[in-house]
Amino acid sequence: MTRPLPDELTALVAEQASHGLIVLDGQERIALWNHWVSQRSNIDSSQALGSTLEEIFPTALDPRIQRATRAALKSGTSSIVASVFHRSPLPLQSLGHGGGALDLRHDPTPPGR
Question: What is the rounded average pLDDT of the residues 63-89?
Answer without folding.
Answer: 77
